[in-house]
Design a protein that fits this description.
- The protein is globular.
- Strand 3 and strand 4 form a beta hairpin.
- Helix 3 crosses helix 4 and helix 5 packs across helix 8.
- With 424 residues, the chain is an alpha+beta fold.
- 37% of the residues are buried.
- The strands form four sheets. It has a seven-stranded antiparallel β-sheet with strand order 2-1-6-7-8-9-10, covered by helices on one side.
- The longest helix is centred in the N-terminal third of the chain and has 21 residues.
- The chain is built from eleven helices and 18 strands.
- The mean pLDDT is 93.
Length: 424
Amino acid sequence: MLIEFTVENFRSFKKRQTFSLLASKDKELLEQNTFHANKYNLLKTAIVYGANASGKSTLFMALISLLNFSVLSGPRSQKGDAIDISPFMLDVNNQNEPIFFEILFMLNNDKDSAPVRYRYGIKLDRKHVIEEYLFAVNKIKEVNLFYRAEQSIIPNKTYFPESETFNTKIVRDNASYLSVCAQNNGEISGKIIKYFQKIAVTSGIDTPPFITMERINRGENLNRITKFLQFADIQVQGLKKQRTPVTFDIPDPDLAKFFKKKFPNAENDQISYAHNLYNGEEKTGVWYFTEEFESLGTRKLFNYAGLILPVLDNGGVLFIDEFDSSLHPLIVENIIRLFNDKRFNRNNAQLIVSCQSVSLMTNKLFRRDQIWLCEKDKYGASEIYSLMDFEDLVRKDANFNKNYLAGKYGAVPNIDVIRLQMEK
């Protein structure tokens, strides 16, 4: 269960910014849109709006960067490898400053105990880790499990005993201590790494189909995915998986010839979509189309199925940037409603999306603390804030989408029509 994510000096985020799923004291949609975990009341869904190039996608990229480094830097990087991060470059004072990430989350250590709240943070530049820490709330008090200042690592042997299983000197300066602990069979670090691995972050523009295909290959019922498509009023009657020869249809004919010769029996999985077949108005059977004959929206929903269904089944956190790409706003709205509905979201899965469908910005679907805005200032720095962050509090019964388009909340493009006309 995700509580908060903080980023500083990463790409367009110059100053420290915090995105939070901690519910406010607002009583609106309390039963539907929030859930209780220990002493925390958390949001099931959140939506991020903003003009193009405002930094919405950068928020998602920042989380990916934190997750990738904390999980993979130990097992996959080598000594001397550069760390793949980019600081805020539009201020010379920030170009060589470190980047900071922090994430607060709840994790069940075992089935019989209450979830534990962890706080993991890391400060780093392109060459090495400058600071890294992990805290846990033990009953009431927050306890430090380890603290790292460059290559000086001080673990808490009482609450983090796995630190004694190896010498901290083996931790490279360009790797996270957390990932090295997990590599050495650390119990707490291993559970945290597994949790990080299950946080899914994707883009609605290029969500890959192989995620759903892998789920089908692991036994997901095709009828269930069909029902997910039908839920969105897609006229698909069924799905069929089959193996088909790989055509190696690539621009370079010599390379295509080489691959055909090298892999003459290559096959891949293909999904066909069943539609009703008619003789006039009489139904006579079904006709199967391969995916290239289906709309972008149908293919998008198929790709989303492999992400959304398992998260709803098992709980977890799902981030989708540009969520509404190729989808009707009513479909987007009802997918969000699935996550807000206890009947379908029994394990408190969390969905965080960015989109441009302003029609969704209503107090019938979202609380004020669920609507986030991203805006870039004249110096190129991004800021994120929710409708709860205004000094003049946004009324809970306000017309959110109308006010947003009128510029009352910021985070809208400043269209200079006169300049556009003069520069023709």
